[in-house]
Amino acid sequence: MTITFTLNDRSVTVDVEPSTLVSELLRDTLELTGTHVGCDTSQCGACVIHLNGESVKSCTLLAGSVDGQELRTVEGLAGGTDDLHPMQVAFRDNHGLQCGFCTPGMLMSSIDLVNRNPDPTEEEVREWLEGNICRCTGYQNIVKSVIAGAQALRDASRGDDHA
Amino acid sequence: MPEVVGVGASPKRKEDLRFVTGHGNYVADIKRPNMSFGVFLRSPHAHALIRSIDTSEALEQPGVKAVFTGEDMKADNVGGLPVGWGISGKDGNPMKEPPHPPIALGKVRYVGDAVAFVVAETVEQAEAAAELIEVDYETLPHVVGAVEALQPGAPQIYDEVPGNLCCDWDLGDCAAVDAAFETATHVTSIDLVNQRLVGNPMEPRAAIGEYDAANGQHTLWTTSQFPHVVRLLMGEMVLGIPQHKLRVVAPDVGGGFGVKQFHYAEEAVVTWAATKLGGAVKWVCQRSEGFISDAHGRDHVTQAELALDTDGKFLAMRVRTYANMGGYLSTFGPNIPTNLYAPLLSGVYVIPSIYCEVKVVFTNTVPVDAYRGAGRPEATFVVERLVDTAALEMGIDKFEIRKRNMIPTESYPYQTPVLVEYDSGDPLGCLERSMELADVAGFAERRSASEANGKYRGLGVSTYVEACGLAPSRLAGQLGARGGLYESANVRVHPSGAVTVLIGTHNHGQGHETTFAQIVSERLGVPFENIDIVFGDTDKVQFGMGTYGSRSLVVGGSALNKASDKIILKGRKIAAHQFEAALEDVIFEKGEFSVSGTDKKKSFPEIAGAAYVPFDFPLETLEPGLEEQAFYDPVNFTYPGGAHICEVEIDPDTGVVRLDRYTAVDDVGTIINPMIVEGQLQGGIVQGVGQALFEHGVYDEQSGQLLSGSFMDYCMPRADNFPDFTIKPHSTTCTHTPMGVKGCGECGTIGSPAAVINAVVDALRPLGVSHVDMPASPNRIWNIINNSGARAAAE
Ligand code: FES
Ligand code: FES
Asked: Does residue A64 have its Cβ closer than 6 Å to ligand 1?
């Protein structure tokens, strides 16, 4: 089948098998390999992307179901390497990553959290990220990054209000 | 303004920009021209003869290019996977080392053993075809536990290994230990299980083989911690490809933890298949496949005894361990429960004599090899559980018994009775600092508060020491290593003064691109941003032994430091020529060459530029160019150590153990980048706590299946399982590494399991509990509480 959807603000039309997973579509067909696959039981969260602004595990999403929808992947967060999303900056500033494999999923999940809850507590961050496994960092610096990213986003929106 | 960022700073990591923007380059991300896809058919049986394999139907499926079996590889003279470290038994005989074919030949020895490899145009086609391969198995009785495998009448896994005993190994003075036990006032005995773990780096393994017939050139992209070693082992010993015709690339790798420091069958199979078929062949491991094909870790059963005198002073220790090797020997398998285990049994204590015997045993399980800590967490667990139990039995405070027996700081260098000599350390300093930070004094109050809420609270401590910085080649050679364990670094100074470093270690999360750049920035005065670190490609990097055993900074960083010395010397020679001064008078400081006592000076970039414009060089004595290489072989292991204290709270209604507070004080020697060191400790502690509370690779004795074979059943530590930790360094300087570094990658994993279990036992002590096996899962704890009668009494 042919599907058309918005991916990182651009319209994309592709031919896919309806049973293709979105994680495969992104990685294999569209060559956006920032979305990672870390398991085959929807447990790890390495594959998290945004569907209409909300985080979803792309390894459980069928390509046929995203026709007409809006997707965003980690590649669609930054304007450029010197125009990073505040959450990307926060992860970098707070050593919120080591090998980087879980990082795209962590970023996408964290941004969804902060969209819903602009000022999360440490406990809320830890609970929200329960579905994202990181084997390297021990999570402490990821939590610190998310809190810092949330703060930066609040500061930015306050700036916007004043402007 | 570009700046020097040197030792002790915590700059943002160089590698992070590509990772946070989704532009990492992992093996699974790589596409090659003319690439086909392979999948493995794996054994569903723990132990079976292969009577026949019928591939005819699979071969007829659309898109299928080939189906290979072990016989096909054998017919092509493909060798077995080699073992990199051999050991010898008590009787002086070498270990039993049966062949390990990349695809099973005639017999399968564990669930997951590869039986065939299908290559097709797409993964889906290969998967569909694999299902049509007919394997006629004759199942055999199997055995999954090391102790059981040694029983008379146990199923025999190899004809040539009677009783499944790979090696009966020992270390220490048995007679002296026996004599000391005779004189003891008190003997503490414990039985421990150090359970099997599955390392599970978040990036599953993957490999792409490629063959360029026109140039006779083979390439392998692989998720490896040591590409040069794979080139050596696979090229020379398995496939017979000369080193200069084989390129091995390990690009960005998503975590290793030991799991990726072995030469795996799949690497050889894709490389060989690509040679047969032309083009590239790609294999990407599924997570559930990784559970039954990645080498596992730990799996010890141990009996240990400690002899003490009336004052609670340690007299001697006796340890017997059964170590499970699985169905084949993995690359370093036999070395882990022997050479990396028994030499650490002295811990940070004075123990006059120690004897350890290890029975290294084949079973019908996935091969077992190094996993973060590798032998040293197992040793620490034995020592610290023994010490805690002895304290309890003799009525001595757990901190007091440790202090009483610790190696005094002034006794360093300290020769243990088990081979190793610790060069430096301050265990008492670490312990006292950790007690202060953990507010041990306030524990009684916190315990009462928990009790008032119907919860049990316990406090546990563990000290540790590890041998890392693998490894002094001479010593390793005496212990059976089949290769050297030095490291190499090449410092290439460009005419602009910018620097490219080519180094043989491998970065898969440790931040080498940052830390190594800091070393060069400090030594050469070159701005941090003008330095790039290259690793992971045998066509670019001269040689290297890779990354494991907390060796990268210790051995690789020292090689880099040594190469920097050579650059400075060469720069001084060029400067001496330019200044028309004597070499002895030219000094290099803060990025500037100058002549002492004069105002003549030139910057590092000026001398770098001059090196490449040698119009007036005296060519007999001064070569053009500014590039130097060094190999560094350490003279001893390094011995990081420390003290970890944790507090747990247990809910008797659910059996859940909640980690409430965790304090770590670690001696890692000189710290180059404090942010990265702390990150390594945080991650290491979570892995160690994972072992203590959650993780368990469980085999079903009846079926021989791995029961915890996915993230649904194997409990990985998650964000909401932890509080923030308090982590502080308490460093002494390593006396033999040039920068005083000791390494930090494994500390967290080594110190934490015993600290947590000691805390759990402390919490349940009112119920008469003196030991809890790992993992202290809710089910296990709930049962302990409910069988103790405490519930009945309370209700
Ligand atoms: S890949 Fe693991 S949850 Fe999607
Ligand atoms: S940074 Fe490696 S898995 Fe999270």
From this structure: no
| C-beta separation of A103 from B203 below 8 A | no
Helices (H) and strands (E) in chain B, counts: 21, 28
Cα B84 → chain centroid: 15
Burial profile A85-113: b = 16 or more Cβ within 10 angstroms, e = fewer: bbbbbbbbbbbbbbbbbbbbbbbbbbbbb
Q: Is the pLDDT of residue B361 over 80?
A: yes
Alpha-carbon gap, residue B166 to B88, rounded angstroms: 10
Q: Which residue has the tokens 């993992």?
A: B775
Q: How much is the average pLDDT of A22-26?
A: 98
Report the residue of B15, B19, B372 to disrupt the A interface, i.e. the one with the largest count of A CBs within 10 Å.
Answer: B19
Interface of B with A in 454-513 (CB under 8 A): 508-511
Quote the DSSP letter at residue B212.
E
Note whether A18 and A64 are same-domain residues.
Answer: yes
Whether A129 and B719 lie within 8 Å, measured CB to CB: yes
Phi, psi torsion values for B28, nearest 5 degrees: -65, -20
**Residues B417 and B411 sit within 8 Å (Cβ to Cβ):** no
The CATH superfamily holding the domain B31-140+202-255+260-291 is Aldehyde oxidase/xanthine dehydrogenase, a/b hammerhead (3.90.1170.50)
Give the residue, out of A94, A99, A132, A145, with the most ligand 2 atoms within 8 A of its beta carbon, to mutate for a pocket test.
A99
Q: Is the pTM of this model over 0.95?
A: yes
Segment among A98-102, B127-131, B483-487 with least mean pLDDT? B483-487
Model confidence over B741-762: pLDDT tens digits? Answer: 999 999 999 999 999 999 999 9
Please tell me the CATH code under which domain B16-22+486-632 is placed.
3.30.365.10
